[in-house]
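Proteins fold reproducibly. Next comes an illustrative record:
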Amino acid sequence: MRLKRFVLPILTFITLTQCVPVSPTSSSPGMELLYEDINYVPEVQTVQLYPFQGKDSDILQSPIVTLAQSGSLILRFDLLQENTEVLHAKIVHCNFDWTKSWLGDVEYLSAYNEFPINQFTYSVSTKVPYIHYELRVPKVKVTGNYLIYVYRNNDEGDLLLSRRFVVYKNDVGIEEEIGLSTNVHLRGSHQQIQFKISHPKTLVMNPTEDIRVVLRQNQRWDNAITKLKPNFFKEDMRVLEYNHFDGSNNFPGNNEFRFFDLRMLLSRGQRIDKVIPGSIPTVNIDADMPRGSRPYAQNLDINGNYFIQNLDRGGGNIESEYIKTNFTLKADQAYQGDIYLMGQLTQWRKEAYNKMQYNAERKQYELQLLLKQGWYNYQYESTLKEESQLLEGYYFPAENNYEILVYYRLQGARYDQVIGYKSINYNRPN
């Protein structure tokens, strides 16, 4: 299937909408700021941060941009409520490990670090009222990890959300090789990333300390690989090689993501078992089965992401309904670990609100989320890795997107620069 068949054109303005209490999120108002992708209150929903370049597919891209493009990022979200509020955003420069750096605001921003969010639109004829907000993230002056957070009522303790983004320069070259794991027992299930970094213009005195790398799979921070060290140096050529054979550079190949089509209520989309009208519409997704023992089958997915669209009447951002969405996962008995529904729709977090509950009478796990109309990818994960493999399957041919981020800090410097970035789509034929 072709992506542009499903994604609506991006609006040039976006609004913040608050969520209804049907779908609780991670935290409560007044909590300490966390340097993570998180919604702090249940009325915040459908948060998206991405680089706007005028294409339908922009919404699916990582919030990782060059320094020259740093003013292109768009933050948008909904607040499920009827009245607008005074909202502001702030930006924090962070170290490699997502702790606050030593830089002051004026060293990475040209404007005062408090940005009002004035662009908003009320939902139109929806059963759950909401307000849709948009902010174009201000341009920054230096590379690095950044956190943007939103708060209301001029009170930074009244947090709504926080999201990570990265700004980089291409000062190094990255050459990668993705393939089968060199560990025999992982060859059928994992994918291995070997790579080398060429730095002709960057002085690296101590490669094991000055350079740090991050490997990500499918835009996830929660399972990123962050502790790799170069194991071979070519000083005359200024090349660092990362060729590890101990599994430290391996990711589970995973499976193609499960999906459902929530873009229609007047008729049933793909994998929708039942649509139940009401003051808040309810939808039952087709029951899922564990698939770790099944043969791998390739199908197109969007690697755990989602996009918003309403095929009943258009106007996806402000006319899409919020829907009580019921998930079921068949299981003859409860697993030992806790089971979570995972993907961008749950910020890749394991929290109380997306934890599946086992129904012993029906022999299935159950969960209800409040979701906006759109197309969604998801998967199930256990707190025990071996159970996650049983639930979804790990297959080396599976298609995944990988990202390599290169950080640099010369001894005595006050912050970590991002001097290289590469995104790679891996799709090994069966």
